[in-house]
Here is the input.
Amino acid sequence: MSDYQAIITQAGLNKAIDADQNGVSIKVTHIAAGTSGYTPSVSKVSLASEAVRIPVSGGKNVSNTQIHLTGLFDTGEFSCRELGFFLEDGTLFAIWSHPTNVLFYKTELNTVVQSFDLVLSAVPPGSITVDTTGDLSLIYSTEFVQFATAIMDNMMRQIEQRDAINNMAAELNLSKPLKG
Here is the structure.
């Protein structure tokens, strides 16, 4: 097993099977990060030292046996050594931890955008869906607008500079204007 592969808990498996038998699907809605490192087991119902729980920021069903989730960790300061993936009713569906490895370090000054793929080979196909808060690519929209504005301002300065040079060249009767 990979050092970075989450395992589905017994409670998560039970919920998935119940949902499948009732013809419904269950939703992974939250991701929790914690600070304790250990070897996870299917019997876990919570993280050992939960630091923060966030809504799933982005995600999709990749296939009937795999979902892709993205989380935006923007508060707190901690070393992430355990992760929990929670259903809409609060059930711990899947867990990841490692006795020595740190997945990421979150400071008060940074935002961590972390993606996860959950392989769902142990649950009925199609029984799990993703519930997201929106498109994570929009979180940087302000920064992209600022970059685009700066680029456009720079382009305008270059055009104005070229036009000024061409005007001076015309006044001096130079034969080759600058092209833009």
The chain has a mean pLDDT of 85. The radius of gyration is 25 Å. Helices lie at 10-21, 141-171.
